[in-house]
Amino acid sequence: MEEIEIYSWATLDALKRAADLVETVGDLNESRQMSVFCVIEDDYLELCYSDTSSNYLRRFEDEEEFEEAIEERKEQLEAGVFDEDYEEEEESEEELDFEDESDEY
User: Fold this and answer.
1) C-beta of residue 55 within 8 angstroms of C-beta of residue 49
2) How far is CA 101 from CA 67, 92, 94, 98, in A?
3) What does the alpha-carbon distance between residue 60 and residue 102 come to, in Å, rounded to a whole number?
4) Strand (E) positions, the chain?
5) Mutual orientation of helices 81-95 and 63-79 as an angle, nearest 10°?
6) Which of 44, 72, 100, 104 could be a cystine partner for 66, CB 3.0 to 4.6 Å?
7) How confident is the model at residue 20 (pLDDT cuts 50, 70, 90)?
């Protein structure tokens, strides 16, 4: 498996339009992450959209590895792994205490 970080959802969308879609796992509104599994010619791909972390493209060596990744992603979604990551990030943001320094200027 190979993975590269993608900065733009537009890039992922362009790849998605060019591909044969196999399955979509997750929902950006509910789980804050969505994986689109697709095929372009002989390439088995996962396009991962995320609200809370890096977007990425994964390329799998063969169909077997691709199918295993789909099942793994479904299990992670059912276990709430994506939601937990988002909640941890929210908690860490809440812990930050910024004092109001507007009076000093």
Assistant:
1) yes
2) 53, 21, 18, 9
3) 52
4) 2-6, 20-27, 33-40, 43-50, 55-60
5) 50
6) 44
7) very high
| DSSP bridge partners of 59 | 2, 45
- Which among 45, 47, 44, 43 has a CA at the least distance from the CA of 35? 47
Return the closest-CA partner of residue 26 out of 65, 90, 73, 58. Answer: 73
Q: Report the range of poorest mean pLDDT among 2-11, 46-55, 93-102.
A: 93-102
Structure tokens at 71: 């099942």
pLDDT at 79: 81
Kindly tell me the sign of the dihedral angle through the C-alpha atoms of 29, 34, 38, 40: positive
Smallest CA-to-CA distance from 55 within 97, 94, 26 is with 26
